[in-house]
Design a protein that fits this description.
412 residues; mainly alpha; Serine Threonine Protein Phosphatase 5, Tetratricopeptide repeat; 4 domains; 21 helices
């Protein structure tokens, strides 16, 4: 995420910021393991009537804090991620908040990282960001505008971020169409963003990236056919650059095929979606989300054996990802392979002890296998971690009470 710009005008900064909206060149999206932070941040209080086991409560808290207290926001996003490893919003939000919390990193975001500390911070942020895209390839990057607002405010000694935003908006009309498109995208002004990006395409600016961004906007507004057409054009643009041996630094074609497959699923074209996911795997055999979607399509077709096989491949592609391990276990249970499922559930729990769902499934399998002591331990652990509205809480509470009573009565 760190880079240098030679043009110090606001437009120049914005154009440079546009260039690294996705993972860095040469970065594999398979960097899906737990983050390398050595010190776990303290768990913040969510306050009020919020559920302290609900990841969404921490995402909401972090969103409230990210402008004025970005370090506290990063901690809240961290805990949202721990409670729900499937949360793309938590991973992305933490990546942004980590940079906003440090003046040096905000400056380096636009001027280039000059210290080992900054480079290490950007590596962590890039890893979090890449993992978020794997979980939700259409994730709206709603916080990206804060980089620019904070940079302008700090560089020009503007204490009020609202004034910094006003300065940016005043200068917007003189900026290039791609920059204007980026701004309107960031602020969810979809019609204006599409128009400015169309203007940028006519100028020949960053075609593949802008086509992909237009596809995402069409998807947000449920114009799926238009979104799909833009993605196919983006893929064709990538292929042109591959033939000319130009290195492209934006999202790989695997991601574009993943997005295409999701759009095809939403429009009822399952067979074509499978083909798109197959092409994603041709680009990157370790692209776990394609295996997951193929598994989901197999489940829709009632083919539990094929689904389990795809879930296993996804887990093998991301062995340090607790969520992928849990998905794999779920698929194996459906395929009636409980012993194999237990192995993945225990791995998921070891990778992320605060993730509640693997605890419940492991408790249920232990219960069904008459390993009641283990079932009691896991039901209790699940109830300690599960959100209040988790639909499985009632069953877990009843079974825990029953098994505890049996144990107290000397029954096995």
């Amino acid at each position: 995420m760190g880079f240098r710009v030679s043009n110090r005008s606001l437009a120049g900064v914005l154009v440079a910021g546009l260039a690294l909206a996705g993972p860095l060149a040469g970065q594999s999206p398979a960097a899906q393991g737990p983050d390398p932070a050595l010190v776990m941040p303290p768990r913040p209080m969510v306050g009020g009537n919020a559920d302290s086991n609900d990841a969404r409560a921490y995402v909401e808290l972090a969103t409230e804090l990210i402008v004025k207290e970005p370090l506290a926001a990063a901690n809240a996003f961290h805990w949202a991620q721990r409670l729900d490893p499937s949360s793309a919003a938590a991973l992305y939000g933490r990546a942004v908040a980590t940079i906003l919390a440090d003046d040096e990193l905000v400056r380096a975001r636009f001027e280039g990282a000059r210290s080992d500390k900054a480079r290490a911070a950007f590596r962590l942020a890039d890893s979090l960001d890449a993992r978020a895209r794997l979980l939700d390839p259409f994730l709206h990057r709603v916080h990206d505008k804060l980089f620019l607002i904070s940079y302008v405010a700090r560089r020009n000694h503007i204490g009020n971020l609202g004034q910094a935003l006003g300065a940016i908006e005043s200068a917007l009309g003189d900026m290039e169409p791609a920059v204007q498109g980026w701004y309107f995208y960031s602020t969810e002004q979809w019609k204006e963003a599409l128009q400015r990006y169309a203007d940028a395409l006519r100028r020949g600016d960053d075609l593949a990236f802008i086509l992909q961004r237009r596809a995402e906007i069409f998807q947000y507004t449920r114009q799926y056919d238009s979104a799909f057409q833009q993605l196919r054009q983006a893929i064709a643009e990538h292929e042109k650059r591959e033939k000319s041996r130009v290195v492209w630094i934006y999202a790989p074609k695997a991601l574009l095929e993943h997005q295409s497959g999701l759009l095809l699923e939403r429009t009822g074209r399952a067979a074509e979606a499978r083909e798109a996911y197959g092409r994603a795997l041709l680009e990157d055999i370790s692209y776990a989300p394609a295996h997951v979607r193929l598994a989901a399509l197999a489940l829709q077709a009632a083919d539990t054996v094929a689904a389990a096989g795809e879930f296993v491949l996804a887990a093998q592609a991301a062995p340090l990802d607790a969520f992928r391990r849990y998905q794999c276990a779920y698929g194996l249970v459906l395929a009636r392979k409980p012993a194999d499922a237990i192995e993945h559930l225990r791995a998921a729990i070891a990778l992320e002890p605060w993730f509640a769902d693997p605890r419940f499934l492991l408790a249920k399998l232990a219960d069904d296998g008459e390993r009641y002591d283990e079932a009691v331990v896991q039901y209790r652990a699940f109830l300690e971690r599960a959100r209040e509205r988790d639909p499985q809480r009632g069953f877990a509470s009843r079974r825990l009470a029953t098994l505890s009573a049996r144990k107290a009565g000397g029954l096995r």
